[in-house]
Amino acid sequence: MNDGLTMPVVVGAVVGLGVYVLVRALMPTKRSALSQVARIDAMRARGTAYESARPTDQGSSGRFASLRAQVGERVADFYRQQGWEQRSLRADLAVLERSWEKFLATKVLLAVAGLFFGPFLFAIVWQLGFGSSPVIPVWLALLCAVLFFVLPDLEVRRDAAEKRRDLRRVIGAYLDLVSMSLAGGRGLPEALMAAAEVSDGWATQRIRNALADARITGVSQWQALGQLGEELGVEELKDLSASLALVADDGAKVRESLASRAETMRHRELAEIEGSAGEKSQSMLVAQLLLCAGFLVFLIFPAAMRVFQV
Fold it and tell me: Do 118 and 143 meet the contact criterion of CB atoms below 8 Å apart?
């Protein structure tokens, strides 16, 4: 095939494939029974798991908000039809108290913006005289779209990791409070709720809401803590639920288990703090060495230039 025809054919094939994938993603298809059940569960979770995020969502209005909601629902339906659960990402969003549908809408809208940003960047570079191939804007558009589509995932994972560290610190203190309440003569359900009512922070509020929902639904409180750990992706809460289920009838064993678990979490936190402090000290040492090397080059360079000129 002639080289002059190869490039338009490749560009047309890439654009046609992108249009086909977009149409298939947005076209409503026949839902199976499994996807219908998943849709109902998602609608129920939308009203419970993100209850605290609703006051911030009500302030957004207008065409962009409605477009974002429609795109989010369509993309969420597509994910359910394909069986893409994304459990770790959903757990990160649950920790941050963000909506799954709005997160997907943000990813898609950013990807669309990347499709326009790539050719715009090429136009600037072409004006400077650094490119003339017609395939460059296509690859730039695809590259920017993929990059913009992935950026929200990185942001969510970073923020969720920081918030989980705060949650683990709160859990360690919470276990100490529960152990002291048990030593004071309270039962396990009362001690769990009393320890959660000490503070109004977001972590204790999530624990308190989970315990309150357990009373309404008739689930044991340690099972509610395990479900909260499953939702937030926190292994400490799931381990706590399993250990409490084994020794829930023996108050002395419960106190010993909680005290040992809180001590283990404190030691782990101290080890993480020491490790991060060591990393920061190493980075400071490297920065000081680079500064000293630059200062030595600044001192030696004039003398070296004189020697080489001679």
Answer: yes
Closest to 113 (Cα-Cα) out of 154, 77, 68:
68
The secondary structure of 47-92 as a DSSP string is: HHTTGGGHHHHTT--SHHHHHHHHHHHHHHHHHHHHT---HHHHHH
173's CB contacts (< 8 A; 6+ apart) are 262
C-beta separation of 38 from 77 below 8 A: no
Position 252 confidence tier, pLDDT thresholds 50, 70, 90: low
Amino acid code (one letter) for 186:
R
C-alpha to C-alpha distance for 242 and 95, rounded to whole angstroms: 21
Angle, to 10 degrees, between the axis of helix 87-96 and the axis of helix 221-232?
110
Could you tell me the pTM of the whole model? 0.64
- Average pLDDT for residues 145-152, to the nearest whole number? 89
Cα-to-chain-centroid distance, residue 113: 22
Within a 13 Å sphere around the CA of 306, how many CA atoms are in the beta-carbon half?
Answer: 4
d(Cα 223, Cα 197) in Å, to the nearest integer?
Answer: 19
- Are residues 207 and 308 in contact, defined by beta-carbon separation less than 8 angstroms? no
> Distance between CA atoms of 261 and 242, rounded to whole angstroms?
12
Q: Rg of the Cα trace of the chain?
A: 28
Token output for 130:
């650094």
Contact 132, 123 (CB under 8 A): no
Q: Which three-class secondary structure state does DSSP give residue 225?
A: helix
d(CA 235, CA 114): 37
More confident residue, 254 or 170: 170
Please name which of 181, 198, 167, 168 lies closest in space to residue 264, comparing C-alpha atoms: 168
Question: Between the CA of residue 298 and those of 302, 303, 308, what are the distances in Å?
Answer: 8, 10, 16
